[in-house]
Design brief:
The chain is α+β, with helices and mostly antiparallel strands. Helices cover 45% and strands 18% of the residues. It folds into 4 domains: 8-214, Serine Threonine Protein Phosphatase 5, Tetratricopeptide repeat, CATH 1.25.40.340; 241-354, no CATH class; 373-488, Rossmann fold; 492-594, Hypothetical Protein Tm841, Chain: A,domain 3, CATH 3.30.1180. It starts with 7 loop residues before the first helix and ends with a strand.
């Protein structure tokens, strides 16, 4: 590699450096969201998207060729894509890697063409591209790259420096393209995220001191993670065995095989990490039956580097040492390919033996398979009450997420695979999840088999509820798609939360800590009282033709307080039916629909 070209090793280094810089800036980027809501998550979504690929890239050999590197970046970011900004970032990476994968050395001409391919791919992924966003910043960078290449600039350092400076300049102009950005006094958060990736990559190119190690936490949702207790206590460990191994693949896994294997692992345990390339697949899973994971893996090839730890015994050993009363005999099993030994397990476990047979002591619970049907439903929501409402309406699988954590494309795919139906309707219930659901739909179409995904573009929970209610079992998929899509257009909705910073939106001055009622058309009410803000918001979204008001109260509202609000709404709108239901959602005190 000279001053005028980049090889796979340098591209890998630059990619990891870009991912790390985005990770370091994600909280700052979150704060750039126009609406000052506590769930601003552009930085988090983009970070989790790129870190999904960075984890895989960090495990590649330093001599990995360009084709393998590009496949790893593209596949990892697509599967990990979360939120609109994350999906767009994954498409930029997908298009860019398509443009460079056939070359061992990249010059400025190839890089410029790859940037064009990146922008083309990303714009195609968005139904209605909007300028003043990450797309605009990407397009500006691409246009500058093409201009420099056409001018004969061959020095990579100069090329990268000027492209990034221009991307930053375009970013600074995004408030002039989107009035809502200008009013809020911020640049586009997604565009800022892209610029930080580019700046980090440039630092990697320059050889700056950067920690390129990728940890699991950066790519794992932490919004709802429980806080650790200061003192270790006796724990109810759901899955007792930590199982790790490498599969020496007979042939590369296709997309469906990868999804099926990961879906199987999720059905028997948790803490799953599965990374595959053309030759090997590394697996980590916590389960109560290591033999099941091992038996399934043998379908794909030979096993190597096997290790099984009894976590319950290790935990008890730690507890015993903490008391200072003596020693506990540790039962820890490690299996490697050369050892001819039988693992030691506790009574009641199913044990894989080295000769290929198994020894079983006690019965194991097997999850009953879902009966097959023509159509099924997957929905996304946050809150145990909302999840139960959807289940009572016939939804087969509820993905926990939404306002506080956008599920990835892979999360949606995994949920769809668990529904035993020919057609699965997916209800995102959040405008920031629709793109990820659309990507899942495309991936399913590319898989062998007849399963089909239909995305009903619900932007909130009330629309999702209306869509399910309007499903007709005896109608065709096409008829139901039309009926449900029409139904969500007749729902007016609003949500009440609090502001995390001072800003001005639609001429309304908002202070940090204020309560906000946000309707379909934007901010409807602002004030210091949750009840007053909610009541004013409902008055704003109501019209004479509406007959039903549904109020879903969140985790931070008591039933008595919610009932008081209901009585006030009933008195104001005496000709309407008013329903009050427990939603249990975080962040949003009330979710309201009127139809």
């Amino acid at each position: 590699m000279g001053n005028n070209t980049l090889n796979a090793k340098m591209i890998s280094k630059m990619f990891l450096a870009g991912a790390k810089n985005l990770d370091a800036k994600k909280d700052w980027i979150n704060e750039l969201n126009v609406f000052p809501v506590p769930d601003g998550d552009t930085g988090t979504n983009m970070t989790m998207t790129i870190m999904s690929a960075a984890k895989d890239v960090s495990q590649l050999d330093e001599n990995t060729d360009m084709q393998t590197l590009c496949k790893t970046i593209s596949t990892g970011s697509l599967r990990g894509a979360r939120g609109n900004s994350g999906v767009i970032l994954s498409q930029l990476l997908r298009g860019f890697t398509k443009g460079i994968k056939e070359y061992d050395e990249l010059d400025t001409v190839i890089l410029a063409a790859a940037c064009e391919k990146a922008v083309e791919t990303a714009y195609k992924a968005v139904m209605k591209p909007k300028e003043g966003t990450i797309l605009t910043v990407a397009k500006g960078a691409s246009e500058k790259a093409t201009e420099l290449a056409n001018e004969g600039v061959t020095d990579i350092d100069k090329f990268l420096d000027e492209v990034i400076k221009y991307a930053d300049e375009v970013l600074s102009k995004t408030p002039d393209m989107l009035p809502v950005l200008k009013e809020a006094g911020v640049v586009d958060s997604g565009g800022q995220g892209l610029v930080q990736v580019l700046k980090g990559a440039y630092d990697g190119f320059l050889g700056k001191e950067i920690d390129l190690s990728i940890n699991e936490e950066s790519a794992t949702p932490v919004a709802n993670a429980p806080k650790m207790k200061a003192k270790t206590e006796e724990a109810d460990i759901k899955f007792g065995y930590c199982t790790e191994f490498i599969v020496l693949l007979n042939k590369p896994l296709n997309v469906k095989q990868e999804m099926d294997f990961k879906g199987f692992l999720e059905s028997i345990g948790d803490s799953i990490v599965m990374v595959a390339d053309d030759e090997i697949c590394k697996v980590h899973v916590h389960s109560n039956d290591p033999g099941l994971a091992i038996q399934r893996a043998l379908k794909y090839g030979q096993l190597s580097n096997m290790k099984i730890d009894n976590m319950r015994m290790e935990h008890r050993e730690k507890l015993f040492h903490e008391t200072g009363d003596g020693k506990w005999l540790e039962i820890k099993t490690e299996i490697n390919g050369a050892a001819e030994q039988t693992p030691t397990y506790r009574q009641g476990d199913t044990v894989p033996l080295m000769n290929g047979s198994t020894a079983t002591a006690g019965a194991k619970e097997v999850e009953e398979e879902m009966p097959h049907k023509d159509c099924g439903f997957v929905t996304v929501c946050a809150g145990d009450g909302l999840a139960e409402i959807f289940r009572s309406l016939g939804v087969d699988y509820v993905i926990e997420g939404g306002q506080t954590m956008n599920p990835s494309t892979e999360d949606i795919l995994n949920a769809v695979q668990k529904v035993n139906a020919d057609t699965v309707f997916v209800l995102p219930n959040n405008k920031n999840i629709i793109l990820a659901a659309n990507q899942a739909q495309i991936l399913v179409e590319d898989m062998p088999g007849d399963k089909k995904i239909v995305v009903i573009p619900t932007k909130n929970v009330p629309q999702g509820v209306s869509a399910v209610i309007n499903y007709i079992p005896d109608a065709s998929v096409e008829e139901n798609t039309e009926a449900m899509t029409d139904a969500i257009g007749g729902v007016k909705s609003g949500e009440v939360t609090y502001a995390v910073r001072d800003t001005v939106i639609d001429g309304i001055e908002i202070k940090s800590g204020d309560y906000m009622g946000i309707g379909d058309a934007g901010i409807q009410s602002v004030g210091a009282s949750i009840e007053e803000v909610t009541f004013e918001m409902i008055k704003k979204i109501m019209s004479d033709d509406l007959e039903l008001i549904s109020i879903y109260y969140g985790a931070d509202i008591t039933e008595d307080v919610a009932a008081k609000l209901k009585m006030r709404v009933e008195a104001e709108f005496s000709s309407c039916d008013v329903e009050l239901q427990y939603g249990g959602q975080p962040i949003y005190y009330y979710i309201v629909s009127a139809e």
